[in-house]
């Protein structure tokens, strides 16, 4: 009954054919997003990655500005101001924060010794300002991270691209070389370099130049092998594009996702390796400071002056953590298939 | 399979040979002489000493001798420890390192597997998030930082466990913990990813459709198949563990190989550095070789791809 009544209420005029608006249907209402806009949108939703990104920016700014803004340098010694605990203006009045200039026994060392200046992170046993030294060490960590990324981009991509593109015997020989290089542990490479050269930034850099790019080369090679038989490459070749154009204009841009992901994961592991080497005394030598060597120095007086170890340890952990978070986020954003 | 194993074996030998050669020629490149007080020695005495150590012969002959000695397991003598053979120094120190490494790998693997499996089963629940946070932190905090914090808070502040040295099981707990965090992080991450992939595959659906209980599906099908790729990370993990023992032994004053290695670097004791380097390399390369072969055994696709080359 109900259904029939309703049916009779319907008027035939309601069922006129719609006006032909073919163009209207095809219209795209939203702006189309490029690959990068799309990736950025996905990255922005990843809170952990954004926190990491902000932290990297803050740490990098501090590393650049703090040593320049301070009137003390990383190697200035002032024995009368040795082993001072951290003291920061304003924060010194908050009691549960360890920035009130009191040592482990609660004695205000600044008042006791009549020191008027503020050492924000305190000083070490030679009276060097830990604030400047920590940020100077962060500079070295960032330099190593950038260097590793650069090596990955320059050597890794070229090697992998050539190996994958030419294939055959060239590929075979190049892959065997990589396999042997990979067999030699990185640490042992560094030690060998340190024995010929002095311990320091040059040895670490050289060892990285020799071994750091193999993962990237392997990934680029695999992708190029897959892509080089695609139709669009054949089309470009038919049109007479030279090899260099094929590699750099057609193949590399299509491998850019995995390239960026690999680079991002290289950075934290390079930073970790430098800190580790400096910690066991193979890296940066005094008076220069690296986060690893600062932790090692601070470790010696952990019972009496824990701030000497804890501050650089927190900074290095934050640095590696932020890069890992951003790398994870970029992987998820660039390659949703890889998202776990 | 035999061909694949042989191929891996040949690579292993080539790599070892290259490392041994590199070490030898670097030793020759090094500045300074192995003789002490050489100004006081007469030319005859000098020649006698050089002859005693075989250093009077031309470099290529020395190289052949060195390789021959290596095959016999002779790594030379230390400069600093009263001319003691390097092999003896290594065998004296290997015990604590091996114990530490073994405890860390067993503890780390068990905890890592549990974390990874729980995270995958409770995907996107709080258990998953907790495991992910632990894995990210574990991968990010350097072992020497963690070791230092453990020492400061648990040993110095709370005084629950001894700060350092090596005098019984109680002394091994903190170093093992510091060393195993990296293992836990990488295993948990890997296991979670693998489990998630396996759990979404068709044969799991089939197993569920047949009416197998949740526990049965997880234990019989999911975990077993997820475990296979986990074998691949055992190789890189050995490398990490080795770098880990270097700092952890230094930090906790463990009388192991790593602690001696770091000290010989500080003392410029070249034969010990070289011998230990070779020993570590051989150990790692052997580990990678075993992992490669093992993986070929459990996953037939690998050895087919390897054999086709």
From TrEMBL, chain A:
Keyword tRNA processing: no
GO biological process, one term: peptide transport
Keywords attached to this entry: Cell membrane, Membrane, Peptide transport, Protein transport, Transmembrane, Transmembrane helix, Transport
Bilayer topology: Multi-pass membrane protein
Membrane-crossing residue ranges in chain numbering: 48-69, 140-165, 177-195, 201-220, 255-284, 304-330
Subcellular location: Cell membrane
Transcription regulation as UniProt keyword: no
A Pfam family: OppC_N
Domain ABC transmembrane type-1: 138-327
GO (cellular component) term, any one: plasma membrane
Protein family (similarity comment): Belongs to the binding-protein-dependent transport system permease family. OppBC subfamily.
Name under which the protein is recorded: Oligopeptide transport system permease protein OppC
Naturally occurring in which organism (per UniProt): Geobacillus stearothermophilus (Bacillus stearothermophilus)
From TrEMBL, chain B:
InterPro entries to which the protein is assigned, alphabetical: BPD_transp_1_N (IPR045621), MetI-like (IPR000515), MetI-like_sf (IPR035906)
Transmembrane stretches, start-end: 9-27, 100-121, 133-153, 173-191, 227-248, 278-298
UniProt superkingdom: Bacteria
Topology relative to the membrane: Multi-pass membrane protein
CDD domains: TM_PBP2 (cd06261)
Record-stated family: Belongs to the binding-protein-dependent transport system permease family.
UniProt-recorded name of the protein: ABC transporter permease
Species of origin: Geobacillus stearothermophilus (Bacillus stearothermophilus)
């Amino acid at each position: 009954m109900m259904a029939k009544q309703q049916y009779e209420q319907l008027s035939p005029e309601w069922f006129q054919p719609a006006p032909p608006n073919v163009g209207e249907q095809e219209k795209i209402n939203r702006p189309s997003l490029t690959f990068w806009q799309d990736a950025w949108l996905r990255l922005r939703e990843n809170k952990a990655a954004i926190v990491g990104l902000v932290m990297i920016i803050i740490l990098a700014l501090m590393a650049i500005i703090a040593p320049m803004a301070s009137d003390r340098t990383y190697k200035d010694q002032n024995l009368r101001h040795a082993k001072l605990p951290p003291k920061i203006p304003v924060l010194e009045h908050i009691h549960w924060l360890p920035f009130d200039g009191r040592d482990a026994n609660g004695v205000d060392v600044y008042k006791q010794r009549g020191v008027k200046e503020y050492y924000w992170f305190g000083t070490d046993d030679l009276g060097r300002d830990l604030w400047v030294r920590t940020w100077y060490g962060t500079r070295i960590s960032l330099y190593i991270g950038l260097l590793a990324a650069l090596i990955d981009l320059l050597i890794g991509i070229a090697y992998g691209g050539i190996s994958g593109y030419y294939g055959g015997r060239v590929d075979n020989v190049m892959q065997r070389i990589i396999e042997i290089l990979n067999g030699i542990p990185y640490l042992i490479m560094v030690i060998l370099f340190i024995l010929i050269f002095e311990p320091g930034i040059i040895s670490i850099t050289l060892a990285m130049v020799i071994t750091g790019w193999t993962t990237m080369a392997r990934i680029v090679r695999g992708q190029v092998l897959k892509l080089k038989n695609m139709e669009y490459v054949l089309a470009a070749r038919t049109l007479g594009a030279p090899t260099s154009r094929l590699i750099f204009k057609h193949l590399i841009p299509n491998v850019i996702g995995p390239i960026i992901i690999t680079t991002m994961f290289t950075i934290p592991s390079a930073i970790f390796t430098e800190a580790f080497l400096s910690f066991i005394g193979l890296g940066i030598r005094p008076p220069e400071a690296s986060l690893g060597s600062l932790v090692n120095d601070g470790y010696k007086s952990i019972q009496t002056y824990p701030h000497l170890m804890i501050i650089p340890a927190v900074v290095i952990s934050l640095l590696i953590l932020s890069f890992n978070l951003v790398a994870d986020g970029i992987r998820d954003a660039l390659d949703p298939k890889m998202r776990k | 399979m035999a061909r694949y194993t042989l191929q891996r074996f040949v690579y292993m030998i080539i790599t070892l040979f290259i490392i041994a050669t590199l070490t030898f020629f670097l030793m020759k490149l090094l500045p300074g002489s192995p003789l002490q007080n050489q100004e006081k020695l007469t030319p005859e005495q000098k020649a006698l000493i050089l002859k005693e150590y075989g250093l009077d012969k031309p470099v290529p002959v020395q190289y052949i001798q060195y390789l021959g000695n290596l095959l016999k397991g002779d790594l030379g003598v230390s400069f600093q420890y009263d001319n003691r053979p390097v092999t003896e120094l290594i065998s004296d120190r290997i015990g604590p390192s091996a114990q530490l490494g073994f405890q860390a790998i067993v503890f780390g693997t068990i905890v890592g597997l549990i974390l990874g499996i729980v995270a995958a089963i409770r995907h996107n629940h709080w258990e998953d998030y907790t495991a992910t946070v632990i894995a990210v932190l574990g991968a990010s905090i350097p072992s020497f930082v963690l070791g230092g914090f453990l020492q400061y808070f648990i040993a110095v502040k709370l005084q629950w466990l001894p700060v350092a040295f090596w005098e019984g099981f109680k002394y091994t707990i903190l170093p093992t913990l510091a060393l195993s965090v990296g293992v836990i992080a990488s295993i948990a991450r890997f296991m979670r990813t693998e489990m998630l992939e396996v759990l979404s595959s068709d044969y799991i659906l089939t197993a569920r459709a047949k009416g197998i209980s949740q526990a049965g599906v997880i234990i019989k099908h999911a975990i077993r198949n997820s475990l296979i790729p986990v074998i691949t990370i055992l190789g890189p993990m050995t490398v990490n563990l080795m770098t880990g023992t270097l700092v952890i032994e230094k930090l906790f004053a463990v009388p192991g190989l790593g602690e001696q290695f770091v000290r010989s670097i500080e003392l410029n004791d070249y034969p010990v550095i070289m011998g230990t380097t070779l020993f570590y390399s051989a150990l790692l390369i052997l580990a990678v070789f075993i992992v490669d072969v093992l993986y070929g055994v459990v996953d037939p696709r690998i050895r087919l791809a390897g054999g086709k080359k």
